[in-house]
Amino acid sequence: DIVMTQSPDSLAVSLGERATINCKSSQSILYSSNNKNYLAWYQQRAGQPPKLLIYWASTRESGVPDRFSGSGSATDFTLTITSLQAEDVAVYYCQQYFGTPPTFGQGTKVEIK
Amino acid sequence: QVQLKQSGAEVKKPGASVMLSCEASGYTFTSYYIHWMRQAPGQGLEWMGIINPSGGGTSYAQKFQDRVTLTRDTSTSTVFMEMSSLRSEDTAVYYCANSETSGPFDYWGQGTLVTVSS
Question: Exposure of B23 by Cβ count < 10 A (0-12 exposed, 13-18 middle, 19+ buried)?
Answer without folding.
Answer: middle
